[in-house]
Amino acid sequence: MIEEIFNKQNQLKNKLRLSSSKERIAKLNNILNWILNNRANIKTALQKDFRKSGEETDITEIYPLVSEIRNVKKNLRKWMKPNFVKRSIIYLTHSAFVKYESKGVVLIISTWNYPFLLSIGPLISAIAAGNPAIIKPSEISPNTSELISKMILELFPNKEIAVVQGDKAVSTELLKLPFDHIFFTGSTEIGKIVAKAASENLSDYTLELGGKSPVIVEKSASLKSTAEKIVWGKYLNKGQTCVAPDYILIDKDIRNSFTELLVNNIKKYYGNNHQEVETNLNYARIINEKHHSRLVEIIENTKQNDGQILYGGKYDSENYFIEPTIILTNCEGCKISEEEIFGPILPIVEYTNLDEAIQWINKRNPPLSIYIFSNNKIGIDKVINSTHSGGIGLNELVIHFSHPHLPFGGVRHSGIGRSHGFAGFKEFSYERSFIKAGKLNFLKIIYPPYNNRKRKIVDFFVKYL
Ligand code: NAD
């Protein structure tokens, strides 16, 4: 069945490549209306998958998609137009331009942590660029995957857009096919498998991978608003966010007072103790047993020797609940410091000077984002100039993901390629270069046979043009 859909999409891809912006926008409008009409169903699916609250679903799944579609609708005509480049003196009579053309049949493999957003987001870019697509949503969030399948069946024939549900086995089957582009969101480990499979067919690919994004909190930072932002960004979706602040690097002198501010905000947002948090409907659960026990192991290892629990640390394995937790650590080589946390545990690492913080970051793979909270321009510049990351947040975090005009992506282990808005449209397109001859052909001067006059002209080119 998978191959049949793939073949049908291949037959249609050229027609879609030639589709107008109006036709593509009509499809995006159908998605937009479906989302707006099914807001309640989307919320129910996410509630069933990991008890995500309606408010968080509105803010982090529905609104970013609605805003992405509106942005594409506003700009697509302009993006699709040929983009003329400057004339060059040697090619004076030629006109030259770039046109974005659809790549062809694309595969979108997505993950469970924002299961609706991360499946439909890339689809919006794929449709904008004029591609047919197969979506393989995550088997770990089955209710949302089922809803995505229902939505696509209602809106598209499968020769254009199809959903194929299943686990690793289905993914593996799909990855054998010669897709024109593969868009993968998930862990770095599986990202490598996807890249290997893509290389067999020389398929293009985008990898949106793991985070481990550090936050630097410098002495000069406005500590009150910094704490508000960090607690929001960390415990949103219960830390199961690729761009979540993974851990804090903080100036030793302010660690005590800053921890107090963090704790005050946890209490304000979610409740004064673990019972209050556990019954708070805005506090979601860890997605499954595997991820829950991974996080419990981090807490238990901390109790042994990997650090000191400054706040929280309680959990309930019956319903995958983990209390907002803060851990002081400087353990090199421990899971807490080397692996993406992806849960409501916030490690704090102290530094005595900014160079130590930079070294700590640079000993690890380049993260998806680096967040710097500081009012000291010299310090900020130092961090920016001596590190790599997909994004930077200056006294801000997480929200660069949903800014309509910012490309989003990582660096090597945190990702390859860019998505969202114009960057997403480009990712699903080939930049095709056109050159068109004018009436006069000055270039004859470089055609043989070569004589002294031609040699002099070429010599002039080499020296001056
Ligand atoms: P995962 O890599 O286990 O799974 C992602 C997808 O890959 C699923 O659809 C799954 O079915 C499929 N898959 C699993 N094993 C496979 C295999 N062997 N071959 C082919 N496909 C396979 O990821 P996860 O644990 O579900 O997601 C969490 C990770 O995703 C985190 O690291 C997080 O940071 C990352 N993430 C990144 C972004 C981003 O935009 N950069 C966004 C969200 C999540």
Structural summary, described in words:
The radius of gyration is 25 Å and the shape is globular. The strands form four sheets. Strands 10-13-14-9-8-15-16 form a seven-stranded mixed beta sheet, with helices on both faces. It has a six-stranded mixed beta sheet with strand order 5-4-3-6-7-17, sandwiched between helices. The protein has two domains: 2-209 and 415-432, Aldehyde Dehydrogenase, Chain A, domain 1 (3-Layer(aba) Sandwich), CATH 3.40.605; 214-402, Aldehyde Dehydrogenase, Chain A, domain 2 (3-Layer(aba) Sandwich), CATH 3.40.309. It is α/β, with parallel strands linked by helices and 465 residues long. The mean pLDDT is 96. Helix 5 (117-128) links the parallel strand 3 and strand 4 (133-136). The protein has helices spanning 2-17, 21-37, 39-50, 54-80, 117-128, 142-155, 168-175, 188-201, 223-235, 255-270, 274-279, 289-306, 335-338, 354-362, 377-386, 421-427, 452-464, and strands at residues 83-84, 95-102, 106-109, 133-136, 161-163, 181-185, 204-208, 213-217, 245-251, 308-311, 315-316, 321-322, 325-328, 345-351, 369-373, 391-394, 415-416, 429-436. It starts with a helix and ends with a helix. Nicotinamide-adenine-dinucleotide binds next to helix 7 and helix 8. Nicotinamide-adenine-dinucleotide (NAD) is lined by residues 109-113, 118, 136, 138-140, 167-168, 171-172, 175, 185-187, 190, 193, 208-211, 242, 340, 342, 368, 410, 415.
